[in-house]
Amino acid sequence: xxxxxxxxxxxxxxxxxxxxxxLGTGSTAYYAIKKVGxxxxxxxxxxxxxxxxxxxxxxxxxGIELIDLAEAKSLDLTIDGAxxxxxxFNLIKGGGGALLREKIVASATDKLIIVVDESxxxxxxxxxxxLPIEVxxxxxxxxxxxxxxxxxxxxxxKEAGEIYKTDNGNYILDCDFGKIEDPIKITTELNxxxxxxxxxxxxxxxxxxxxxxxxxxxxxxxx
Length: 223
Ligand SMILES: O=C[C@H](O)[C@H](O)[C@H](O)COP(=O)(O)O
Known about the structure:
Strands 2-1-3-6-14-15 form a 6-stranded mixed sheet, sandwiched between helices. The relative contact order is 0.18. The chain is 28% helix and 28% strand. The protein contains 7 helices and 15 strands. It is globular and about 50 Å long. The chain folds into 2 domains: 2-120 and 203-215, Rossmann fold (3-Layer(aba) Sandwich), CATH 3.40.50; 131-197, ACT domain (Alpha-Beta Plaits, 2-Layer Sandwich). It is α/β, with parallel strands linked by helices. It has helices at 2-11, 29-41, 53-61, 69-72, 99-107, 140-148, 183-191; strands spanning 20-23, 47-50, 75-80, 84-85, 91-92, 109-117, 131-135, 153-156, 158-159, 162-163, 171-176, 196-199, 201-202, 208-212, 218-222. Ribose-5-phosphate binds next to α5.
């Protein structure tokens, strides 16, 4: 928890008056959002685009002004968490189910800052975390069969015994590909499949990765 707080708060050093920022989702982004709230209450003037309903609720409760992405057009920076980060700053995201909105917001962002604790650093994506893939409910079993042709095992995400639904009303398949050697190829191929809405690989999107360590230090890695 300490590492997540350190990295989340450190990322807010990049925020300046007048910026439009993206707010990520999850337990690490949480600390960045809390800190932004404090900064806003101390006079910082920013507007923000949230990546999930959960983040929108938190940001509003912190007094952060939210705007729609269409109104923002582009964002100065986005602070978001990740489930895995490889040495080239490729990511797996979507552990919290927010990958679709996160990827849209990340793609509209000049600078994507990723905040993680040290446990998220891996040599290859897929080493410790299954790849979340958002799929349409209509054809999810068929889409699952198509995805499994890429030699992965997958399971439909459930919550309290029920199929989990994203903020967009879709389902998530958590897919075990083993170690992913070529993240760009996999993400491109997966997104060609009808029924796949988006997958959790964020290839070549992050510019800065801030790592929090349990011993209390923080490392800023830049491309
Ligand atoms: O869908 C959720 C997001 O991609 C999160 O940013 C990711 O799961 C990391 O979350 P946490 O910081 O809670 O580990």
